[in-house]
DNA sequence: GCACCAGTTGGACGAACGTCCAAGTAGGTG
DNA sequence: CACCTACTTGGACGTTCGTCCAACTGGTGC
């Protein structure tokens, strides 16, 4: 097993542990046990536990929880707002069905953000999310014959923010209906920044 | 010193520690040291460390980080959207100036939410935030001669969600301008749910 | 077949953790 | 003054933590 394979396996195991037991339970021993590795393997693949957790955050950011939005399957007949609402609703449904994963993501993200509170911005980290969502927004507009009056990258950041907020809020109150309502509010607010082409 | 005073002092100390060192650094010893108390005082006032952290979350929810929105000082001449934007921008400015406090709040909230992942909703916890924001929305509408076309409590939850998301997103990318842009996006989206009275 | 080396392992180590409790203290009562 | 109650304390306990390292493994080159 190469070192890179070992790193990937540890990252996958770390994500499972954080999802199941929370960041507080993500100890070196718990993670290597999940990966079926001896304890020493961690410091052979990573300099420290914190390095592993940072790599785990990068991995989960990459594989993109927002990929759930991907199915922009509705066509021209549905309209832009309905198309957006369907995608955003899909994310909420995923959140309700598997909240531990979103919780794990947020825990990892907040943990990493503490180390850089006084540091300059690190644009690279969320850039990929914004780009992916921006592409989805453009795709949805194209599929419904609309154009954006605000640049998609700007709208993408608003979208990511609102989805994060929908997540934390649902985690606090477990109100499924309200979360879906917030998703539709976002869909309508985004659609207000578009024009129907003729 | 009564037990209640002791509890309050410990809660205040816990918040300071979480803000300074993060949830991971909020150990029993660190908190009692911050409070200037002996170690045993914690289990005299609280059943466990987790009970103290839960009480800390309740306290910070109560004292309401959203109180920063309070200054709805703009008048009729400014219009509803501008009034909302001013209040929301004030929150973003507070976030940028003192991110550790918002980070502490989110860490405490996520920590508490993990224990109730499989539990039924706990409406009480965020209810107060929603109510407070709803009152602010009504106040802003009244001050600018507008009426809401969507019930303020519903809009309030969307607002709290978006503010949470603006917070997590800024913590990830430290993009001040983008955070303010999201605040203005929210202000415009809310204002779209209002009518100017005549 | 022997030496060697990169890779791998599990136990050892000191520190820090949450919790508990026996001893100590202060203040009011007989 | 003696006593008792209620409160307060700091140390002790067993566990778990992250990290490190000496021993072990299987391979390859001589």
What is the topology?
The structure is a homodimer of 198-residue chains.
Chain A: H1 3-21, H2 28-35, H3 41-45, H4 49-63, H5 80-97, H6 99-115, H7 124-143, E1 146-148, H8 152-173, H9 176-191, E2 194-196
Antiparallel strand pairs in A: 1-2
Helix pairs in contact in A: 1-2, 1-4, 1-6, 4-6, 5-6, 5-8, 5-9, 6-8, 7-8, 8-9
Chain A binds a DNA duplex (30 and 30 nucleotides) through helix 3.
Descriptive overview:
- The structure is a homodimer of 198-residue chains.
- Chain A is mostly helical and 198 residues long.
- Chain A folds into two domains: 3-61, Arc Repressor Mutant, subunit A (Orthogonal Bundle); 64-196.
- Chain A contains nine helices and two strands.
- Chain A has helices spanning 3-21, 28-35, 41-45, 49-63, 80-97, 99-115, 124-143, 152-173, 176-191, and strands spanning 146-148, 194-196.
- The relative contact order of chain A is 0.12.
- Chains A and B meet through helix 6, helix 7, helix 8 and helix 9 of A and helix 6, helix 7, helix 8 and helix 9 of B.
- The first copy, chain A, binds a DNA duplex (30 and 30 nucleotides) through residues 3, 27-29, 37-44, 48-49.
